[in-house]
Amino acid sequence: MLKEYSIKSIRMRQCLAVVSASGLLVAAAPPASALPGPRSEQWWFEAWQIENKVWPLTRGKGVTVGLIDTGVSTDLPDLRGSVVGKRITADGVVDDSVDHDTEKGGHGTGMAALIVGQGRGSGMVGVAPESKILSIYKGVLLGTAIRYAVDHGAKVINMSLAQQFAYCTEATQSGVDYALKNDVVVVASTGNDGPDNATLGEPANCVGVVAVAGLDAYLNVWKDSSAGANVVVAGPAADVGSIGRRGAFTAKANGTSQASALTAGVVAVMRSRYPKMPAREIVRRLLATTRDVGPKGWDKFTGYGAVVPYRALTEKIPGNTPNPVYKRIDDLSAGKAPQQANQQTALPAAPNTSAEKPKGSPGLLIGLIGGLAIAAVALLGFLFTVRRRS
């Protein structure tokens, strides 16, 4: 069971090996196949124990991740054969295997590489390299894009974007509802407006979405990560480099977009390892195995804590473990007002087996209660007597 992870040197290797429950440093094992290892800048690989613990179990085979973004440059060596490029227009769906992002140099391509990168060009490797990306251009209504992803085989949908709506629009919520009813996990970034942001943008503020905030390599909240009541988990967001639309790797990149894409990759390997497990249980498992890194319990900056892939893949999770994301959906279905994350039942803490049990017997407690009852009766009698005398 993973206990903690930390970073020693960002320049040399970007991180230390993960510390296991036994307290020993875990040595990195060579990959089981010909797939190259990650670049030295990809510090989250060691922090998440991807090569030596996650990949021996699964690399995401058989899972399609719907990526609603700026498109993907599918002909790049790092992505060739791993992406289905599509663009939805008002008139239908048109084949389109290019990234339309000229402002940021290829946002969608970068997110795709974080998930399914093959390392054949720049050396960029994704956390779920045997998964596939269904690329959907975001230049349409999100609800329509979500439905398209669901209807074309996606088991996970990632939206590394934040639209500036203080509420989830009916069309987008309808799309999310459709995804959940069809056993699809929906993941979205919280945004980069900083911790003082009062509300999350769409789609992170939609009911049923796994909203992902950002952390740095030291498990601190990334300085620009948006906070809010819908945040449920946190992932790597600082110094998380990737490739752009032309295939060049950029090391110094930041954003909750990366945290969301990497978390979607974790969900992909979970769905690959547990192909018959419902989306509801996948999300329950993801939340129940986080590491609490903010204020104790849920908080608006990191949700229930940092995503820990190996724990999510291996730990036994009781069936009655709370599932705050789906609790809100259940409340809505039952006609109740959905609760915010910080109003929900907290996820269970580990039992405190070292605490000393209180000494004494049931008789002592009963005697104490009886004594208090007698005293109360006597006090009432005294007050009644005083009142009669006055």
From TrEMBL:
Residues 339-355 have a biased composition (Polar residues). Residues 1-34 form the signal peptide. Residues 337-358 are annotated as: Disordered. Residues 60-305 form the Peptidase S8/S53 domain. Pfam families: Peptidase_S8. The chain crosses the membrane at residues 364-386. This is S8 family serine peptidase. It comes from Actinomadura rayongensis.
